[in-house]
Design a protein that fits this description.
Number of helices of chain A: 6
Number of strands of chain A: 7
Helix content of chain A: 40-55%
Oligomer: homodimer
Strand content of chain A: 15-25%
CATH class of the largest domain in chain A: Mainly Alpha
Order of helices and strands of chain A: HHEHHEEEEHEEH
CATH architecture of the largest domain in chain A: Orthogonal Bundle
Distance between the termini of chain A: 43 Å
Largest interface: A-B, 25 and 25 residues
Number of domains of chain A: 2
Low-confidence stretches of chain A: none
DNA sequence: CTCCTAATTGCAACTAGTTGCAATTGAAAA
DNA sequence: TTTTCAATTGCAACTAGTTGCAATTAGGAG
């Protein structure tokens, strides 16, 4: 999806099209992967120096609420954001070497089933960062 | 486990027994459940008014690293801490009414198996807060 | 008991992110 | 085109948590 499409979709939900949101979305769409709020601010300010951080955080929260963007905390001190792709995926993160492996949402299907059946609970199992040890670091340790 | 036992165990790992750590551990052990850093500071200061927040956060991080305490982010704005119990457990949190249900670690066994078998990844599947909808709120919505 | 040294503390400054509020502005209606 | 009003922004102050550094201290060795 392109920024314009997201903005149209937001409009239909009663949100306004503002230059700030337009540029924030542009940067997120261009970046192709995970990006932090700080990096968004830096990139937008190259063209539009007056951007305020509140607007960025509020826009990001809006995009997360509407499901256009997924937040992930890799434990680096700042949350990263990524355009949502269907189906969901998760990230395995090696706590030794930092290696990241993407796994598809299906991994959690048995968990979802069990929580629904045994607890009548409908979980959101979206976009987790799962820490652990990768193959190489298991052998080393 | 009692504060004294934790302190002994820490000592064996090369950490010192300080009055700050002693009182922080006492408060965590007494509280019987989840407690925030801020609440720990408040409670310790009743007896020892000069406690600094850095010491609290550093002690909490130490206790998490050593596995004595589990951190959980319920999305309330501050992380909560809980004495570790074996076996691990997780928390289901209803995003509508806030209801919390404890589930044992076994729920994630199939995930662990799959990640080990298919990705050679050894995950830490400890003490998650899993958001979703409880039975009642599913019916309402 | 005294000395020594690394671990720990307090402090102040910092980072990431949130919030209340007044000023601005998008966009729909007149 | 002008009016209108809620949505949004910028700002400044705030919260949670982290960090670098100098001063203190636990606790083992002599």
């Amino acid at each position: 999806m392109q920024p314009t499409e997201f903005l149209k979709d937001l409009r239909q939900r009663g949100h306004r099209r503002t230059p700030q949101r337009e540029m924030i979305l542009q940067v997120i769409c261009e970046c192709d992967g995970h990006i932090t709020a700080d990096e968004i601010i830096t990139r937008v300010r190259k063209r539009y120096p007056h951007l305020n951080k509140s607007a960025v955080y509020r826009t990001l929260n809006l995009l997360v609420q509407t499901g256009f963007v997924n937040p992930t905390d890799f434990g680096s001190g700042s949350v990263t954001y990524e355009i949502h792709r269907d189906p969901h995926h998760h990230h395995l993160v090696c706590r030794e070497c930092g290696k990241m492996i993407e796994v598809d949402a299906g991994v959690f299907a048995p968990v979802e089933r069990k929580l629904r059946d045994e607890y009548a609970f409908a979980p959101d199992l979206h976009h987790f960062a799962i820490f652990g040890l990768c193959r190489k670091c298991q052998k080393k340790g």
